[in-house]
Design brief:
It contains 3 helices and 6 strands; from the N terminus they run ααββαββββ. The chain is of the alpha+beta class. A hairpin with a 2-residue loop joins β5 and β6.
């Protein structure tokens, strides 16, 4: 538990130390999230999943910090701009992203949400599903939750 707290605090401090603000990659079209921390982050995660399916980066852009980095299942790391560009390009085979088992740990102005996902795809009449886990770290900036780090891993196939 202590390593998680230390990691979250280190990420929060590092993200908070960044004084440079970068131009947004997409216009902000957010609706306010409400409820306790867990409920708010779950709402954001569902917006993120919907943005992926609709290929609409503006849906999630307001919730991704300028310093955000994503670690992908293959181990590669992408920055916020590349994440939003990828969402904008879209995947025409992606039909749905279902989220489940979400749990949040809150540390004041920092929080970590973990959960599972299932991506459903269709191509040439063939249906496929990919399942995995995610861990996203958020910090509260200006009263709004911003994702500063994201990690996805694909579940091993039996």
């Amino acid at each position: 538990m202590k390593p998680i707290i230390v990691m979250v605090l280190a990420l929060g401090i590092a993200a908070g130390a960044s004084a440079t603000q970068h131009k947004k990659n997409a216009p902000e079209t957010s609706t306010p999230v409400q409820g306790d921390v867990g409920t708010q982050l779950e709402q954001i995660e569902h917006k993120w999943a919907e943005a992926e399916v609709k290929a609409d980066p503006a849906m999630i852009a307001p919730y991704l910090d300028d310093t955000m980095v994503q670690t992908n299942p293959d181990g590669s790391v992408t920055a916020r701009k590349e994440v939003l560009d990828g969402i904008g390009k879209g995947d025409p085979t992606l039909k749905a992203v279902d989220l489940a088992d979400m749990k949040t740990q809150s540390y004041g102005d920092a929080a970590v949400i973990m959960g599972s996902y299932t991506e459903r795809r269709e191509s040439n009449g063939k249906h496929t599903m990919t399942s995995g886990r995610f861990t996203d770290t958020y910090v509260k900036r200006g009263g709004k939750w911003k994702c500063v780090a994201s990690h996805d891993s694909v579940a091993a196939k039996d």
